[in-house]
Amino acid sequence: MGSFLPLVEKEIKDLLRDPRIYIGLLAPILIMPIIGLAISAAMQSSIETISREGVKVAVIDLDETSISHEFIGFMHGLGLNVSESPSLEVEDAIEELKGSDTRILIVVPNGFESNVTSFRRAQVNVFFIVKSMGLSSVGIFSVIESVLNAYSRALVESFISSKSPEVNPEDVLNPLTTVSYTVVKDKILKVSPGVLFNQFFMGSGIMVPIVLMLVSMTVAQIAATATAVENEEKTLEILLTLPISRYRILMGKLIGSAVVAMLGTVLFIVGLTVYFQSIFSLPVMTGEGLTVSLELPTASLESYVMLFVSLLIAIFFATSLGVIIGALSSDVRISGSLVGFVQIPIMIPMFMVIYGDVGSLPLALRLFIYALPPSYPMLIAQSMFFSELPFEALLGIPCSAAFTVFLVYLTSKLLVPEKLLSIQYKLLMRRMKGRAIP
Amino acid sequence: MNMSVNNGVAVDVRNLVKFFGSFKALDGLSFQVKEGEVFGLIGPNGAGKTTALRILATLLLPTEGSVKVFGYDVISQAADVRRIMSYLAEDAGAYRNLSGLEYLSIMARIYFHSRDEASEAVDRAVDISGLGGKIHDKIKTYSKGMKRRLQIARVFMLKPKLAILDEPTAGLDVVHASYIRKLIKDYANKYSVTVIMSSHNMLEVEYVCDRIALINKGRIVAEGTPDQLKTFWNASNLEEVFIKVVDIGQLPPSG
Q: In terms of pTM, does the model score above 0.90?
C-alpha cells in the first residue's frame, strides 16, 4: 500500500484545488437553505399581509335586502375587508378589479333574501381573479371558501333552530364527528395529509432529486475532465508505466474522488437539513385567516445514515462513469461531449421520482430504476420523514453497491493502455471521417 | 529470465510489428541498445518512433516480435520492466494544481517505499530541474520549458536502468532545448543510465546520442554512430544522411 497513498493524495489535492469543484460542492449547502428560506419568507409575508390588511373583497349586492346586508356584515365580522363594487355590471366590475389588489368579487343576485327566508337554496356568485399561481393566492381563495362555508352553516343552524328549537344544530349537522390526523411514523399530527403533502412535495419530490442530480453530475464531470486532462497532458500514460498495478491507479483515482464526494455528501445533508427545518417552521394557513404551527416530523438517525451511504454509492457510481468517459477521451473537448451520457442514469430516476410513483411502474422499468445507484438517495429522501425506509432501498443499496463495484472492475479492465489507445484511436478516426464528409 | 543474462544488452528489439486496425505502424523493427548507451531513434513524424517507445515502456503490446529490457520480456514481465525503467511521453505535462515539489514527491513515493530514499530522490530532482524557488509554485504557472525540466528531473531522480524519452525537446525554444539536451547527456553519464530517445531533430541526436537508428515507415533504414553514418553516406550531417537513405532506399550498414 506504500505506493498507493501518494496517488490518493495526488487526486485529492488536484481535485480540491480545482476551483470548479466548489460549484458542485457548495451548491447544495447554499441553494437548499436559500430556497427553503425564500419559500418560508414568501409564505410568512403572504400570511402577514392577509392578517394585517384582511382579504379584500368587492361585492355587488343586487338584492339590497336586510338579509343580503346581513350576509355582507357576516363577512366583515370574520375579518374580510369588504367594499362595494363601483359598478353593478359584473364584466365592468371585473375589469376594474384587474387593476386593483382586490382579487375576489362576490355577486349577491336578486331573490337572495326570499330564497333564504323560504329555506330554498340561495345562490351567490364568486369570481376569483387569478393574478398569479403564488402561495398567497391559494391562501386568499381558501379563506373565502371557508367564510362562505361558515355563512352557509350559519343559515342551516338558523333553519334547524327555527324548526326544532330543542335540537342542537351542531348534532344534526355533524352526527358523525370526523377529526383528521396524519400519522407520520411515530408522530400523530392534527393536520390533513394534503397540507403536509403540499409542503413536502417541493422538498422530497423535487428539490432533493434536482440538487442530487446537480451534485452527481458535477462530480462525474469533474472526474471525466480530470481523467481527460490526464490523457491530454499524458500524465495517465506516465502513471501507467509506474511500478504500480492499474487497479491501484484506478482505486487511487476513485478513492481520491470519493473523499471529495464525501465532503460533498456531508454538505448536501447539511443543506437538506437546513432546508427541511426552514420548511417545517412554516405556519399553515387555516380557513379563518388564523395560523397554527405544524409540528416538525423528524427522520431517524438510521435513515440519515442510509441516505449518507446511498449518496456515497451514487456519487462513487457517477465518478466511475466519469473516469470511464475521461479515460476514453483523448482530450477534454471529447470528454465534454461524451459526459452527457452520464446524465442518463442520473436523470431517469430523477424524473421518475418527481413525476411518478416508482412502485406503480411496470416491473421492467422498476427494476431498471432499482438497478441505478442514484435512485436510492431520492427514494430514501422521499420516504424518510413519512414512513419506514422502503424495503427496496434496504435490498437495493447492497445491490447498487455491487453494481458500482462491478463498474469499477470494468473501468480497471479498460485502464489498459493497449485498449485505451486503440479505442481512443478508433474514436479519433471516426471523428475525422465525420469531418471529412461534406 | 533475469538481469544477469543480458550480456551487456539493455534493450533487445527483434522483428517488431505493430498494427492499429489495418494500419501497420511498425514493420519488422529490430535493434539493440547496449548498457550505458544513449541511443537515438530518429525519423519523420509517423515513422513509428512513439509506437516503438510505447511498446518498450509496456504501454502497448506488439502484434509480432519480441522486446526485452535488461533481459525482461515487456509482455510477460511488464511489472519487472516498470521497476527499472522511467518513461517520458512526448509533450507530457504534469498535474496543474500541484506544485513542482509535490509532484516530484508523489512520484518518488510511488517508486521508493523508504521515506529516506524518496526524500533523497526529490532532493536530486530539485537539483536536476534547476527550477530553484519556482519548484514550490503550482505547475499551472510553469512554462513549457519548465515543465519539461521538471519531467526530465522526474525521470533521472529515480536513477532508472533505462530512461525512455519520447521527443524530449519537441516544441521548446533553442535555449530550453539546449538546456534539456545537456541535462540528458550529463545525468545519463552521471548515474550510468541507458537512454533511448526519439527525435526528428537530427542535429540534436548528433549531439546527445552515442548511436542512432534512422527509422522510416516502421522500419530501420540506417543504424550506427553519427560519424559512421556520415562517413558511409558521405554527408556533412545526419539530416543529409537521412534524406539520402530515404531517397535511395538502400539497406543500412550494420552498426
A: no
